[in-house]
Write a structure and sequence with these properties.
Strand content: 15-25%
Helix content: 25-40%
CATH topology of the largest domain: Rossmann fold
Radius of gyration: 22 Å
Shape: elongated
CATH class of the largest domain: Alpha Beta
Distance between the termini: 30 Å
CATH architecture of the largest domain: 3-Layer(aba) Sandwich
Number of domains: 2
CATH superfamily of the largest domain: NAD(P)-binding Rossmann-like Domain
Order of helices and strands: EHEHEHEHEHHEHEHEHEHEHEEHHEE
Structural class: alpha/beta
Length: about 325
């Protein structure tokens, strides 16, 4: 067996791989660590879902492994240092979900601006008519310039929204702001001036609890918030207070971590906090892009001599690669 799939590719990409390699599809192994260890021993590449964590112990059971591939973004479930030491390449479909996540954020903004729609979707045909708002002419705060923000800015500009933005890792003089038609502002000015805030910060551990009481004290009353960043970015108690006292009218977040608003937490009973289970990246189109990206990169890893692959780095687009701490060429599906 060359490739072990614990997450299914679209049929066309799977057929393409099967024509070139020995492929085994075993999605049921994602919930059976013992059986997975037995099977992964003979695999040269694996395609894993989020819940399967790659540790040093996992790699000990996979001596032939050359590549770990995922169709999502995020490395908190992968020991990158251990992969570097074992010369195992980490492949992620980094650009496949950008458009899907951007459209999710737009949809979330529209639903929060026109909350009467949600009542009808829930089956209440006689709900009270609520006065909504329009994105056209609204001020939207872009909090974080992750790749999703680039696609989001194009859509919101086309809808007539005025965009202001802040990113803790991007200087206000960086040319990216003007190219995206976003006015860079201080964090306090973003909070005070935005009618809505979209959160797509590239999360790092140093940003845990970044959205706290001090930051939310400057909210323009009645703001709505949407986000796809990890919920660790929020101080849950501070968010609950802002949702309760009217600083934030409603908040819709995608893919919050377990326990973020569980029973017994201050967020649990708030009906103006809406959580979705990582729906943003789940579209047919993003699945196709991610599947082909992973298929091509796994094939490249298994067929390209290591030295020749490294020689090609200087002239190719870049993506995360755990091998030797160096980036690797990126195959982009448009």
């Amino acid at each position: 067996m060359d490739i072990l799939l614990l997450e299914r590719l679209v049929p066309e990409a799977l057929a393409w791989l099967e024509a070139r390699h020995s492929v085994e599809c075993r999605p049921e192994l994602a919930g059976d660590p013992v059986a997975l260890r037995q099977v992964v021993y003979n695999a040269q590449a694996v395609v894993l879902p989020r819940k399967v964590v790659v540790t040093r112990e996992f790699l000990d059971f996979a001596p032939l492994l050359k590549a770990v591939a995922r169709m999502h973004v995020g490395t908190d479930n992968t020991d990158l240092e251990a992969c570097r030491e074992r010369k195992v390449r980490v492949i992620q479909a980094t650009t496949a979900n950008v458009r899907a996540n951007a459209e999710y954020l737009v949809a979330a903004l529209l639903l929060l601006y026109r909350r009467g729609i949600a009542s009808s979707l829930n089956g209440d045909r006689h709900a009270d008519i609520r006065l909504g708002r329009e994105l056209n002419g609204s001020v939207v705060g872009i909090f974080g310039l992750a790749p999703t923000a680039h696609a989001l800015a194009v859509i919101l500009n086309a809808l007539g929204a005025k965009l202001i933005g802040y990113d803790p890792a991007v200087h206000h003089t960086a040319p990216i702001w003007s190219s995206l038609q976003i006015q860079p502002v201080s964090l306090q000015d973003l909070m005070a001036g935005a009618d809505a805030v979209s959160v797509q910060v590239l999360y790092a551990s140093r940003y845990q609890g970044f959205i706290n009481d001090k930051m939310l004290a400057h909210c323009k009353p009645g703001q709505v918030w949407v986000g796809i960043s990890r919920s660790h970015l929020f101080d849950a108690d501070a968010l609950a207070r802002a949702l309760t006292d009217g600083r934030i009218e409603a908040c819709m977040l995608d893919g919050a971590e377990s326990g973020f608003a569980s029973k017994g937490t201050p967020l649990h009973e708030l009906d103006n906090l809406l959580l979705t289970p990582r729906l943003g990246s789940h579209t047919r189109e993003s699945r196709v892009r991610a599947s082909w990206y992973v298929a091509h990169r796994v094939h490249e890893t298994l067929t390209t001599p290591r030295r020749n692959a490294l020689d090609q780095l200087a002239s190719a687009p870049m993506e995360l690669d755990a091998t030797g701490g160096r980036p690797t060429p990126q195959f982009i599906i448009r």
